[in-house]
Recover the amino acids of this structure.
């Protein structure tokens, strides 16, 4: 695999070949985490020119296969001051491979707004002064017309260093959580344009077996992913509401009385068509149109964060709010949490959909109270010395699953290296469907550890969660090992993959320990509801399974 290093300060670009010390981590998350740990000096400020942005492909990228068009991004997070990671679908990973690019590492800070252009091995740093101040959609349109290819862009939120700014792709796909867009903004990097030719695409080791695997996967998806194909991620909202784990009124309730106004069935009335990442048969994306607003989404996480969490049942306003978040390029989960916390503090009224839209714009431009909300709930609480407890883990706001009714998710939120995250384990699914008692401590540590290790490998391959969902499948350890052998031409026993997953998880933990990030706990209100003795039993068992020392 090759590594392209771009230094925005010196305006130098250099190609390198990765050594075996890195290649043994497969690609994606594994290699990027190792690079971050090795090359980023300890304790640098996340907005320092020294911070790194590492975009990485894996061995599955560049082939035509459902789930194989994802890219991973790693950095020190300005939201948590710890391990930052995010993944993005669409077409960008495939275009990386077409351009002959495996891993892109960016450091430094441009003297004036710039964008990086990578085209078939040629690299240049271009002037972006005319793009600075434009939203992510406008930026992509201008660069697409000029260069073609595929584009990653930030909006005004990244430019203004909103700590949860994201990076946008194709007007509906994002590197969403942790503030990667703010890191780009701090480097005065407006966009990345990648353009290549299919002649550069990697060839699978066994094309015939890949064809067979592709047929099997697509047939399996037709049976296992009917709801995902029909509704996309919003399909799970009715289930979380019924289970009383749909976060509502800033974590005060677990169900929303007006959920039928914002659930998948309600959203379906606005769906124009389905969309998909490159070569994917799931087609989980939904293009919606409400008035003059057109948007890919909103996803379940957005519906909860800007909907039930704020007690907002105005779906058209919610769609507008989501579109603004995408245009300005900022994470809807943290944005919704920040606004709902503001409401819980009595600074705004729950259910005021117009106020939500107003606050999103203020956050993006750091105007008035938006300047404070742009810092995330932890810093809002600290700044105001608020009595109301902010709900976060390691500085990152929780996703759309209330851990008081999902003990596996309680553990998973606490142990995730990037902060409160539903994607590092997807433990909510086996909890929700009854594969494991969601109110019991028994078996949760084994479940979370196994899934974290599994997805560490999935994110190194780099592959899509939705093809590897726990319980649903269709891909788990055995199928993942088979797919790697088909593509790479090397046998990779399941046990070896498991050990590799453990090692990658340990690398992310090592980064956080080095940076001084407080480890593995939950907000006090959740610990009280779950029972501190229950949580301690789960965390101690988890640490035992990982071989980590338990700190009193």
């Amino acid at each position: 695999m090759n590594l392209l290093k771009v230094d925005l300060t010196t305006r130098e670009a250099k190609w390198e070949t990765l050594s075996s010390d890195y290649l043994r981590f497969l690609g994606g998350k594994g290699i990027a985490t190792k690079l971050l740990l090795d090359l980023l000096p300890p304790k640098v400020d996340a907005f320092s020119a020294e911070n790194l942005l590492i975009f990485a492909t894996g061995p599955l990228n560049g082939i035509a296969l459902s789930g194989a068009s994802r890219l991973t991004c790693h950095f020190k997070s300005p939201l948590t001051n710890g391990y930052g990671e995010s993944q993005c679908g669409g077409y960008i990973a495939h275009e990386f491979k077409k351009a002959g690019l495996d891993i892109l590492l960016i450091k430094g800070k441009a003297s004036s707004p710039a964008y990086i252009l990578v085209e078939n091995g040629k690299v240049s740093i271009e002037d972006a002064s005319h793009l600075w101040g434009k939203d992510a959609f406008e930026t992509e349109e201008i660069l697409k017309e000029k260069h073609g290819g595929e584009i990653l862009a930030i909006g005004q939120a990244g430019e203004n260093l909103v700590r949860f700014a994201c990076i946008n792709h194709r007007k509906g796909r994002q590197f969403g959580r942790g503030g990667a867009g703010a890191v780009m903004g701090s480097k005065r990097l407006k966009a990345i344009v990648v353009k290549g030719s299919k002649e550069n695409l990697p060839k699978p080791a066994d094309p015939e077996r890949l064809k067979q695997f592709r047929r099997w996967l697509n047939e399996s998806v037709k049976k296992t992913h009917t709801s995902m194909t029909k509704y996309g991620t919003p399909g799970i909202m009715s289930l979380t509401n019924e289970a009383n784990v749909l976060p509502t009124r800033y974590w005060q309730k677990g169900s929303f009385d007006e959920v039928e106004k914002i659930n998948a069935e309600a959203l379906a009335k606005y769906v124009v068509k389905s969309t998909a990442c490159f070569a994917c048969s799931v087609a989980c994306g939904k293009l919606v149109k409400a008035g003059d607003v057109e948007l890919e989404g909103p996803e379940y996480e957005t519906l909860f964060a800007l909907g039930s969490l704020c007690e907002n049942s105005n779906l058209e306003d919610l769609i507008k709010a989501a579109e603004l978040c995408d245009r300005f390029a900022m994470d809807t989960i943290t944005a919704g949490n920040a606004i709902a916390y503001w409401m819980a503090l009595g600074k705004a009224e729950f259910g005021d959909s117009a106020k939500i839209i107003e606050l999103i714009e203020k956050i993006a431009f750091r105007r008035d109270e938006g300047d404070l909300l742009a810092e995330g709930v932890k810093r809002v609480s600290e700044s105001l010395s608020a009595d109301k407890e902010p709900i976060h883990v390691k500085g990152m706001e929780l996703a759309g699953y209330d851990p008081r009714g999902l003990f596996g998710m309680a553990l998973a939120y606490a142990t995730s290296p990037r902060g409160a995250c539903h994607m590092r384990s997807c433990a909510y699914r086996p909890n929700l469907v009854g594969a494991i008692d969601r109110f019991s401590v028994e078996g949760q540590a084994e479940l979370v550890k196994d899934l974290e290790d599994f997805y560490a490998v999935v994110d190194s391959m780099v592959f899509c969660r939705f093809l590897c969902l726990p319980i649903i499948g269709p891909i788990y350890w055995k199928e993942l090992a088979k797919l790697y052998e088909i593509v790479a031409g090397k046998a990779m026993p399941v046990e070896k993959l498991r050990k590799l997953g453990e090692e990658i998880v340990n690398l992310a933990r090592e980064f956080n320990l080095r940076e001084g990030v407080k480890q593995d706990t939950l907000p006090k209100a959740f610990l009280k509801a779950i029972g501190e003795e229950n949580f301690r039993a789960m965390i101690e068992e988890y640490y035992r399974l990982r071989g980590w020392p338990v700190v009193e």
Q: What stands out?
A: Residues 2-200 form a domain with the Aldehyde Ferredoxin Oxidoreductase;  A, domain 1 fold (CATH 3.60.9.10).
